[in-house]
Amino acid sequence: MPNINKFFQRLSSKNKYLPAGLATLILAVLFLSGFFLGRKMQTGDNGQSKEIRQSSGYAFINPLLECEVGNESPILKSAELKVKKAIQEQIIDKNPSASIAFYYRDLNNGPTFGINEQSSYSPASLLKVPIMLAYYKYSEHDPTIFGKSLTAGKPATEFSQQIQPEKRISEGKSYTVSQLIEAMIKYSDNDATNLLFQNVNQKDFGAVFSDLGINMPEIYNANNSMTVKDYASFFRILYNASYLNRGLSEQALALLGTVDYKGGLLAGTPKGITVAHKFGERESLGDDKQVVRQLHDCGIVYHPQRPYLLCVMTKGQDFTKLSHIIAGISKIIYDQVDSGAR
Questions:
Q1: C-beta neighbour count of 218 within 10 angstroms
Q2: Mean pLDDT over residues 174-200, rounded?
Q3: H helices of the chain, where?
Q4: Is pLDDT of 237 > 70?
Q5: How much is the pTM?
Q6: CATH number of 49-341
Q7: For residue 136, with 0-12 CB atoms within 10 Å meaning exposed, 13-18 middle and 19 or more buried, which class applies?
């Protein structure tokens, strides 16, 4: 700190009432204060995330944080290396036939890392989130859209579902857009999804992707693809309320917190921890005519002190094994975050 030293040297020489020893003491106090403040900011020691959300009147969003990537401290770097090593040894090496990618983002101060986060997978039912976002965005200038009534047609046959919805909409019955969005997100009902997609303004749907700088995949194309890092953007903008207004962002994440799927991310977190997420599954024929199965889960894990975003995409032959892979990665991440928050 050469400039500050010179400042106090000049101040001491010009002011007989400020001895050099006192100037040194003041300098030391300022230095230590700056050191500890800088250390607190660098390590992201922000244990007040839950309190900030609640004091703002929100349980799921934190619009006060822009969540840009912060400076990496040695502590964060060592945690990243530890997590990657554990996932490599405990998950990836033990499942050589599976393709695995994940992306993690600290929602307090922004540090990110992942493995194969630029690899492409078919998003499948994960695309139900941008469909929801398109309707929510439209509602900002026309809130009556949620009460609009739509009549269900014949059941969708485009894609089969291995993880069957607990509830489905019924052919010939009318539902409000609000009811259909709940069926699409909470129960991952493909029939509700098709009905919503057929009635959404395609320009509004495309804008959800273009506004984030993401190429829009074809929703009915079994070979469509997205990266795990790109998909994570949908949850980031909801958490920061940077795309929808605060009330709608809170509403969307609250609904995602009711998803009726207990495997994947949720299975890797302790009971009672809220996870606002969406899973996706896809079954298709590979180039060798063998069945290829994909299972993904992406969302926000509301750790009491350190909420974080985690997206995992997998590809293999067995849905059960893929679900265990996602749960295993989720547990490794949660345990590391939890140990660093104490």
A1: 10
A2: 96
A3: 2-14, 20-42, 49-55, 74-87, 128-139, 177-186, 190-199, 202-210, 228-239, 246-256, 264-267, 319-341
A4: yes
A5: 0.82
A6: 3.40.710.10
A7: buried
pLDDT in tens, 138-167: 999 999 999 999 999 998 776 677 888 889
> For 109-135, what is each residue's pLDDT tens digit?
778 999 999 999 999 999 999 999 999
Please name which of 9, 36, 31, 28 lies closest in space to residue 20, comparing C-alpha atoms. Answer: 9
Which of 173, 177, 182, 140 has the alpha carbon at shortest distance from 154?
173
Query: What secondary structure, in 3-state letters, does 130-175 show?
Result: HHHHHHHHHHCCCHHHHHCEEECCCCCCCCCCCCCCCCCCCCCCEE
Query: Within 10 A of 318 (CB to CB), how many other CB atoms are there?
Result: 14
pLDDT band at 55 (very low <50, low <70, confident <90, very high): low
Tokens coding 252: 């969307």
* Domain ranges, ordered by start, for the chain: 2-42, 49-341
